[in-house]
Amino acid sequence: MGIRVALVDDYEVVVQGLASMLRSYHEEIEIVELNANTLVGKRVDIALYDSFANPQGDKDEVRWLAANPLIDKVVVYSWNVEPDMINAAIANGAHGYVAKGLPASALVSALLSVHRGDSTTHLDDTHAKVVSGDWPGREEGLTQRESEVLALITQGLSNVEVADRAGVSINSVKTYIRSCYRRIGVTTRAQAVAWGASHGFLPDRIRISRDGIDDPTVG
């Protein structure tokens, strides 16, 4: 019998891409919620928190998920595999941390391992660049990191805020922005934001608002 997994991200294309990636493993993984538009509201074994355009694992969003009594375990799914970030996410309540570079079979094995309590961290030891899932702008040739940065500036975040949210340096943010401009054929930030807003780079749901309305510990 498979484990029950809720997919958590604010972009429908990301959630659906992840669901498609796991579809062949339906005997091991039962996707019970596609959480681009809803909070986790059903009993699940694992909430898989995709870090695309979301705060990193050491922020409130993961802590709130971990505090949800309907969720047995929270697993962070991220490109950021720095030891300090992994340790901070685990200290913040995450029960597992999985690298986005893993192929589908290894992702499934990682989720099952976290569920059993065998191992917390699952990274890509082969250093192979596995392209998995889906993201806004893929058809335009944007990489996942470029897409994430464009999504964040489309939401109105400054470069400093983008760096914090994506877990990269300011210089990396600037590099990603420049490459985004070239790929989508714009020259200014305003043009990039307008392009992003009209091409699916605004989230389908703002899950955690800045005033705490969606904080499950409020009210």
Automatic annotation (TrEMBL):
One of its GO terms (biological process) is phosphorelay signal transduction system. It holds the Pfam family GerE. Keywords: DNA-binding, Phosphoprotein. The modification 4-aspartylphosphate is found at D50. SUPFAM superfamilies: C-terminal effector domain of the bipartite response regulators, CheY-like. The keyword DNA-binding applies. Residues 135-200 form the HTH luxR-type domain. The keyword Membrane does not apply. Gene3D superfamilies: 3.40.50.2300. GO terms for molecular function: DNA binding. Residues 4-115 form the Response regulatory domain. PANTHER family: TWO-COMPONENT RESPONSE REGULATOR. This is Response regulator transcription factor.
